[in-house]
Amino acid sequence: MKPKGYLLWLSAVVVGWGLVSLGSAIAFQPSKAVEVVVHTGPGGGSDLFARAIADLMQKENLIPQRMQVVNKSGGGSAVAMAYLAEKKGETHTIGFFTGVWVTNPLTTAEAKVTIKDLTPIARLVLEPAVVAVKADSPYRSMKDFVEAAKKNPGQLKQSGGSVTGRDNLVRLVIQKATGAKWVFVSFPSGGERIANLLGGHVQMMVIEPQEAGEHIKVGNLRVIAALTEKRLPLFPDVPTIKEQGIDIPVIPQARGVLAPPGVPGEVVQYWEGVFDRFTKTASWKKYLEQNQFEDGYLKGPELGRFFDGLTQQMREVLKEAGAKVVR
């Protein structure tokens, strides 16, 4: 029979282990505002996405501090990625990535940071894209636009963001598939891209439903093609680009969350837990439906494999489009 003193000691050890375990489970919670880094200016897709999530997080009371969106535009995604990398070990900063965070380093030798240098948290959505023109545009379909571009090489213009973003990649692969030529004009913010289309300074843009939604609803913009495998429920009468006889690969667009390099494991676990709960909320599911997003939630090792596969896929798309790949 064990002496009473030993049993008391053993009980204390067990309780102590339990407290340590509990302490590990709640080791990190934000103690100040969380800085949310995006690579677009105000009104861009990433800016709108991050602000929507920040609002929904607050409404759902999922984090104890507010999320403050910080716009770090420039160099495609290079400025935002470098800024996040400089925050090594910072526990109150996260960034919202898109596909350009993968493609920009592939084509830009000056880009010093790749997505593998950052800490993955979660992939949240897969996002479709559409081709939009001004409501009074003479182009009723993407086929119309391509034929006009063939007749007037280099005269038509497309507004967009980064030259390594999906909108320009779409232009490159369509040009290669059809022989048409038109100009890509890069603007730092989504608001400027749309304003130039509405003002008639450019004739077309590739845009996400979330970014263009209100302008389409009120009749300022008209959708002429879906850059998807199937027609979008929001635009059932708009044919896909393949239905219009233009056979190009569908270029994926994923949106999700990264942290700086070197953050402690409990910070990653904290954000994974937050997004686990967030993606189960009714408000998130409603947001997905309203914006035509596909639920693409991934985390952990699966997210790492996704980045590896996307990097290889985009490398092949870039080469097919005739872009110079540097890594």
Q: Summarize this, please?
A:
With 327 residues, the chain is of the alpha/beta class. It is 43% helix and 17% strand.
Any overview of this molecule?
By secondary structure, this protein is an alpha/beta fold. 43% of the residues lie in helices and 17% in strands. It has helices at residues 4-25, 45-59, 78-86, 100-107, 142-151, 166-178, 190-198, 209-217, 265-278, 282-290, 300-320; strands at 34-38, 67-71, 93-97, 119-126, 130-134, 157-160, 183-186, 204-207, 221-226, 254-259, 294-298. The strands form two sheets. The chain has a six-stranded mixed sheet with strand order 2-1-3-10-4-11, with helices on both faces. Strands 7-6-8-5-9 form a five-stranded mixed sheet. Strand 1 (34-38), helix 2 and strand 2 (67-71) form a beta-alpha-beta unit. The longest helix is centred in the N-terminal third of the chain and has 22 residues, at 4-25. The model is unreliable at 18-25 (pLDDT under 50).
Index terms:
single chain, 327 residues, D-Maltodextrin-Binding Protein, domain 2, 2 domains, six-stranded mixed β-sheet, globular
